[in-house]
């Protein structure tokens, strides 16, 4: 297979940052304990928010120059973004071989009530084979805070609020009909910032001819792509590691054909 550039010019890029300051709406549910992700989302979104709060006394040692407490999150995959009081604190990922992982990171809490929001991301599940229906995903715990004056704090059975999906999904930003519902900002994709939830859009003229088309996502991270409101799939750029001079990662040749209209 030979991939040739189309020389199609893309117009300027515009971006919109997902609002993570007030993601809870009337559809949210609150229960004690951690719920399995697909049972909550019903596969309507890759994303599920797990939200709880923690009260911190003003006498805690870490507020007076001590070491920050550590948040430990055990996830069944595939990724998690951790937000503390609306600010990104860190991210964790599983692998193709083992989607389960443990996120461990320091958290900058403040005196008073702190909101911990975990955005769990599920990127597809098995749909063939024996007992594939028993696979779980999401954050099933345990979840704990270590390093507080009173010792370790288990958060697994606190009251958790669950919100399905992103606001941009609810506003249908991927559709031409929903694009105008927010204010987009002129941007350059090369700008790096501490924000994992950003929508990007641009326009381009369809190339001439009827050959299959592909989008080269090199330089991007992880996300989904829509053209004219139709999803053409997810992407997650990862580099192979190790010494494998004779490996062929292409596998069986296949094409995703998409008519751009």
TrEMBL record:
Q: Which organism is it from?
A: Lupinus albus (White lupine)
Signal sequence, start to end: none
InterPro entries for the chain? BetaGal_gal-bd (IPR048913), Galactose-bd-like_sf (IPR008979), Glycoside_Hdrlase_35 (IPR001944)
- Short name of any one Pfam family annotated for the protein: BetaGal_gal-bd
Q: Which UniProt keywords apply?
A: Glycosidase, Hydrolase
Q: Name one GO molecular function term.
A: hydrolase activity, hydrolyzing O-glycosyl compounds
Q: What is the lineage of its organism?
A: Eukaryota, Viridiplantae, Streptophyta, Embryophyta, Tracheophyta
Is Transport found in the keyword set? no
Domain named Beta-galactosidase galactose-binding: residues: 47-114, 197-237
Q: Name one GO biological process term.
A: carbohydrate metabolic process
Q: What is this protein called?
A: Putative beta-galactosidase
């Amino acid at each position: 297979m030979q991939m040739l550039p189309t020389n199609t010019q893309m117009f300027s890029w515009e971006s919109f940052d997902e609002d993570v300051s007030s993601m809870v709406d009337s559809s949210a549910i609150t229960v004690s304990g951690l719920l399995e992700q697909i049972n909550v989302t019903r596969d309507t979104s890759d994303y599920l928010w797990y939200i709880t709060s923690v009260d911190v006394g003003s006498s805690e040692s870490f507020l007076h120059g001590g070491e920050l407490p550590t948040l430990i999150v055990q996830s069944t995959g595939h990724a998690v973004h951790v937000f503390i009081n609306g600010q990104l604190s860190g991210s964790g990922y599983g692998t193709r071989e083992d989607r389960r992982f443990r996120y461990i990171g320091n958290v900058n809490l403040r005196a008073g009530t702190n909101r911990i929001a975990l955005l769990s991301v599920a990127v597809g599940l098995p749909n063939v084979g024996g007992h594939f229906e028993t696979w779980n995903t999401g954050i099933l715990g345990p979840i704990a805070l270590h390093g507080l004056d009173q010792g370790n704090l288990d958060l697994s059975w606190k009251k958790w609020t669950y919100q399905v999906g992103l606001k941009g999904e609810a506003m249908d930003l991927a559709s031409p009909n929903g694009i105008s519902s927010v204010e987009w900002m002129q941007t350059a994709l090369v700008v790096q910032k501490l924000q994992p939830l950003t929508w990007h859009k641009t326009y381009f003229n369809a190339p001439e001819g009827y050959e299959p088309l592909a989008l080269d996502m090199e330089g991007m991270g992880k996300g989904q792509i829509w053209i004219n409101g139709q999803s053409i799939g997810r992407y997650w750029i990862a580099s192979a590691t190790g010494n494998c001079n004779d490996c062929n990662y292409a596998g069986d040749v296949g094409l995703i054909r998409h008519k751009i209209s």
